[in-house]
Amino acid sequence: MPISTRTYAIIAAVAAAAGLGLTWGVTQFSAGSEDIFAQCRRGVVGGSGQLGGPFTLVSETGETVTDKDVVTGPSLLYFGYTYCPDVCPLDNTRNAEAVFLLDERGYNVTPVFISVDSERDTPETLAEFTDIMHPRMLGLTGSPEQIKAASQAYRTYYKVQNPGDPYTLIDHSTQTYLVFPEIGFVEFFNRDTTTEQMADQVACFVDAYNAAK
């Protein structure tokens, strides 16, 4: 099958330079008074409230799904959009490569790409994007209201620069969130986290999660 012009653009964008993401504090997950993930964290963790929560979105297959349908095992969530010229392809390639490393080590982690672009990111567009990155990467979109609710749950930021313009860029935050079934959010990764660092840290979290079951 010939590769589309859009696919070439996505692949080429992976090599592009990217800007800095936002950072903020988070609340640690505790089992009783003890943080079962303490040995996995790289920095001081604290903050004003718990990140994450329930959401209802539309899968790249066209099905309406909830967070319980999506987060059935350790998952890496990223909010972005497929028309992003540089940051999203770069970040999602890093996430996919980390998951490939984890696959080699016997860890089954799902990369998830949540679009903040309800106007242009159809399920079909998301499927094309995610298929390039990793065979298990799942793309999610939805109505403006559904996307806003999911974004607010994870305290992400996004803003359409020129509403109504079919070529508009969207400003957005760039953290990747590690989440587990039942527990939910446990850690985030900034843009300066390398593939190897992410794989090592996620493996540590998965080991701690499994040990605590």
Would you count the extended β strands for me?
9
Mean pLDDT: 86
Largest sheet: 7 strands, mixed
In N-to-C order, the SSE pattern is HEEHEHEHEHEEEEH
Helicity, as a percent range: 25-40%
Strand order of the largest sheet: 2-1-5-4-3-8-9
Give the helix tally.
Answer: 6
Which architecture does the CATH hierarchy give at level 2?
3-Layer(aba) Sandwich
State the shape: globular
Query: How much of the sequence is in beta strands?
Result: 15-25%
Per CATH, the superfamily is Glutaredoxin
Strand-pairing-aware structural class: alpha+beta
Tell me the span between the first and last alpha carbons.
Answer: 45 Å
Radius of gyration: 17 Å
Taken together, the total number of domains comes to 1
Q: State the CATH topology.
A: Glutaredoxin
CATH class: Alpha Beta
Describe the structure.
This protein is an alpha+beta fold. It has a single domain, classed as Glutaredoxin (3-Layer(aba) Sandwich). Helix content is 33%, strand content 19%. The strands form two sheets. The protein has a seven-stranded mixed sheet. A two-stranded antiparallel sheet has the order 6-7. The protein starts with a helix and ends with a helix. The relative contact order is 0.21. The N terminus is likely disordered.
